[in-house]
Design a protein that fits this description.
Number of domains: 3
Distance between the termini: 77 Å
Number of helices: 12
CATH superfamily of the largest domain: Spore Coat Polysaccharide Biosynthesis Protein SpsA, Chain A
Number of strands: 27
Helix content: 25-40%
Low-confidence stretches: 1-9
Shape: globular
Radius of gyration: 26 Å
CATH topology of the largest domain: Spore Coat Polysaccharide Biosynthesis Protein SpsA, Chain A
Mean pLDDT: 93
């Protein structure tokens, strides 16, 4: 063949082959969300049993936003703790993500065991060559185009054996984030971005050091987003965290011994355990319009005010999930957060101290530190309206196709008034079909349940009367969700 006569590929044909390559990579890409959190930084909206990724701060929850942002790259996996199972599965179902792709840790154990668990599960499934992306569940990313390009470049680097960190271009000298120092020479360039060799991870700095980082121009925030091949991370875990991997390597395919393994697995972050020790890795600096939504001050900067009126004041911020208007008179630079059972009032730039309020509430054994008056259950949710010594009232929602356990109460009777839907109530084995506006009385000790055979949510008011109204006054005779 006369090589001089071979024509180069046209741009159209090159784009065609590049699309094939990108699609092939996407088929092997597993976006994974790490979902934990103590629920203290955005109290009183977020709490231990309802951390910030589930709070609807921006029309929908941050967890929902994260799932939807990642779905174009592959069906997301989730690693979270057992206590968030109901909330996690509810959001996954609502966003059409298979709940089978959720791994539930027996206890919160930091990020290294979570990533080791994921890698072992994927290894057991024969997916050691898959590329994994690790993403927090509760961060806001507004520049999705830059995010897409960063992921595509990250995948290319990961296929070459690199562990990739997505670096966030700093907008001010923050002392609350770790930093990544990068070299000048690119490891790889594509999509208008560069993957730069990482010179090291830096701990959260003091103010002067943060200023020095910004002036140097080659330091980026660590947003906790990593991309790697499963086999690559397993190799690094074996080398840098042999105890963690040795324990997790005993995992059975059916996860039946997971609780026993987690009791033996040391708690450690992937940053400290692996990333800070890796001599060769890359960072992709980019501007994602990123926020970790880590305080009410940060939300105030994002300009998500609820309805408010200022008279003779300025710079105030209000958030209410109760539909109430917040008014300010001759006050300046205040933040007010209004929920059903608690109100936070703070000066701006002081909301990091909200953790001390949570500590004070916990010291008083006040359940408002960790619980809301509402609760999600596998069948739906309820919200407590009044809780007194004489009675307790709730509004209860039962999702289509779901039913409560067949149960009885030893210390209370209940009266149910239907608002929406057409449920079936089973009372001592007799079926009653009810319509909106109708009611039924559940005597103390009677066996009962409500089910929703329809396609819309059933809503009803429950009034309890008796001597005790705790959620533990339940004897279950049958339950779809295998609760004892």
């Amino acid at each position: 063949m006369d090589c001089a006569r071979v024509k180069p590929f046209s741009k159209k044909k090159l784009d065609f082959f590049r699309d094939i390559w990108n699609n092939d990579r996407l088929m092997n890409f597993i976006p994974t969300i790490l979902s934990g959190g103590s629920g203290t930084r955005l109290w009183p909206l977020s709490r231990t049993q309802f951390p910030k990724q589930f709070c609807e701060l921006f029309e929908e929850s941050l967890f929902t936003k994260t799932l939807n942002r990642l779905k174009p790259f592959g069906s997301p996996w989730v690693v979270t703790n057992q206590g968030l199972k109901v909330l996690t599965e509810t959001v996954m179902r609502n966003t059409q993500v298979p709940t089978e792709q959720a791994l539930f840790e027996p206890k919160a154990n930091n990020t290294a065991p979570a990533i080791a668990l994921l890698c072992k599960v994927l290894e057991l499934k024969g997916q050691s060559k898959s590329i994994v992306g690790i993403f927090p569940s509760d961060h806001l990313i507004q520049n999705t185009d830059a995010f897409k390009k960063a992921l595509e470049l990250g995948m290319e680097c990961a296929t070459r054996g690199q562990v990739v960190t997505i670096g966030i271009k700093p907008t001010y000298p923050a002392t609350g984030y770790g930093y990544i120092e990068v070299a000048e020479k690119p490891y790889l360039e594509a999509h208008g971005l560069q993957a730069l060799q990482t010179k090291g991870f830096r701990e959260k700095p003091n103010e002067q050091t943060a200023e020095d980082f910004i002036q140097a121009g080659n330091f980026y925030w660590n947003g906790g987003m990593f991309i790697f091949e499963v086999s690559t991370m397993i190799r690094h875990l074996q080398h840098f965290m042999p105890e963690t991997w040795s324990v997790m390597n005993e995992l059975k395919a059916n996860l039946s011994n997971l609780s026993e393994l987690y009791a033996r697995c040391p708690s450690q972050s992937i940053d400290y355990g692996v990333m800070e020790k890796l001599k060769e890795q890359v960072c992709i600096p980019c501007d994602l319009g990123w926020s970790d939504v880590g305080s009410w001050d940060e939300i105030a900067k994002l300009g998500k005010n609820s309805e408010m009126i200022e008279v003779g004041g300025h710079g105030n911020f209000a958030f209410s999930n109760q539909g109430r208007i917040t008014t300010f008179v001759d006050t300046h630079e205040l933040i007010v957060v209004d929920t059903a059972d608690a109100i936070l009032v703070s000066k701006k730039n002081s909301t990091q101290k909200v953790k001390h309020i949570v500590e004070a509430l916990n010291a008083r054994k006040d359940k408002r530190a960790n619980e809301h008056p509402f609760e999600f259950r596998p069948w739906g949710k309820f919200e407590i309206l009044r809780d007194t010594a004489d009675y307790k009232s709730k509004v209860i929602h039962v999702n289509p196709g779901q039913q409560l356990s067949y149960q009885s109460h030893a210390k209370r009777a209940e009266h149910w008034v239907m608002i929406k839907g057409q449920p079936e109530v089973i009372l001592n084995d007799v079926v009653h079909r009810l319509n909106p506006g109708e009611s039924i009385y559940i005597p103390q000790g009677a066996k009962h349940r409500i089910r929703n055979p329809g396609t819309e949510v059933v809503e009803f008011i429950e009034v309890q009367v008796g001597t005790y109204f705790g959620e533990d006054d339940i004897v279950r005779y049958q339950d779809d969700y295998k609760r004892s």
